[in-house]
Every structure is written in C-alpha cells, then in structure tokens.
Write a structure and sequence with these properties.
75 residues, mainly alpha, 39% helix
Length: 75
C-alpha cells in the first residue's frame, strides 16, 4: 500500500493502473503459449477463448494475435 495522504486516486489513474495490470496478464498468457515450454505451454485456443470479448478492436486482430508483441484490452 502506498501512502498518498488518503487522497483518492483519480478515475483516470485507476483506469490506467487497471489496464496496465490486465495487459500485463494478457501478455503473460500469450507468452505462455510458446512451444519452448513444451508440456507446460498453454493452448492458444485457451488464451483466445479466455480473452474473447475483452480485446480492443477484436474484429480487426489477425488470427495469430496471441503471437503478436502487444494486444490492448478495451473497456
């Protein structure tokens, strides 16, 4: 917990922090599909189904979006 003199966080700061946390998790999920993890790698279909309906501009994403460097979550 960070002491900020009990000043509430601004809505934009909360949104930025939330999006950063969610994007970090999405990136981790995408990285975990890598075949170098062999048996421990998670299936690409699991990642796609987990994030379906959450991604920003999902219709415009390439079919291999999980292998892309960054995909942004939309609210």
């Amino acid at each position: 917990v960070v002491d900020n003199d009990n000043t509430p966080f601004s809505p934009s700061m909360v949104e930025k922090t939330w999006l950063r946390a969610i994007n970090d998790r999405l990136e981790l999920d995408c990285l975990m599909t890598n075949k170098r993890f062999r048996k421990k790698a998670i299936k690409l279909s699991l990642v796609k189904n987990t994030w379906k309906g959450v991604l920003k501009d999902e219709e415009q994403l390439p079919s291999n979006w999980a292998g892309a460097a960054r995909v942004l979550v939309g609210i």
